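Practice problem: predict the structure.
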Amino acid sequence: MNLPPLREVIARHGLDARKRLGQHFLLDPSITERIARIAGKLDGRHVVEIGPGPGGLTRALLEQGVASLTAIELDRRAVAALGELIDPRLRVIEADALALDCATLVPAPRLVVANLPYNVATPLLVGWLRQGAAWESLTLMFQKEVAERIVAAPGTAPYGRLAVLAQATTRAHIAMALPAAAFTPPPKVASAVVRFDPLPRQPPAPLLDALERVTAAAFGQRRKMLRGALKTLGGDPLALLHAAGIAAERRAETLDVGEFLRLAGVWGGVVNGAPTAAACRDSSTLSDPAPP
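Answer:
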């Protein structure tokens, strides 16, 4: 593709990065090409990109031979800038990605590859993790601190709810680190690309619901022993922990992902993917807790 430099595109469309949109643009084609390659073989794949901005990563993805590329952009200036990319495989949707079910926009095999706007990165990720079976892979840019939380191991300071959910549904690893200077304008923190490969066997939806509730309680008071932290779930935390085979004196950061899944299954009464009758009877323990 014979395309104008991205800085010219930005100037022509008045596309200065706006903080309220979490915008930090990648303009170096060598970097965007590396990110596209981290996503793996793209021939025949249908890719969703969130927050493409002036289109640096968009160009790289098209060059890697995607079957189709659906770019979701909230900023009308960027939508106009992307109009300069004349390619029948590219579809630009002006919308808030948080309001869309991205998996319904493209056929399988589908992937997400994106330099995510920092202010919506985590809620977008959680939504995609909950529908892991729909995606072949996710290749996503985060603040480095968030990336480290995603891949954190038990017993480490960054380990928390995000690590448990990500590792219960995918194999995730940091594939690339980027300094702040790689972006325009440079953010205040470094960034990292995380590659997620969904596990062949996904936890059923009721178990994921229970997992989110249990981890919210456990990590919401992470300095407390579990026998105290889990009181916010209602019921008897000692009985719950005993049924799950977990010592009441342990703290949240010491449990591995398998133990959290077991604890969530017991609390939610989830057996073979469905809530048990006992869980349905005990509506008090399934009421929504206060937001963490």
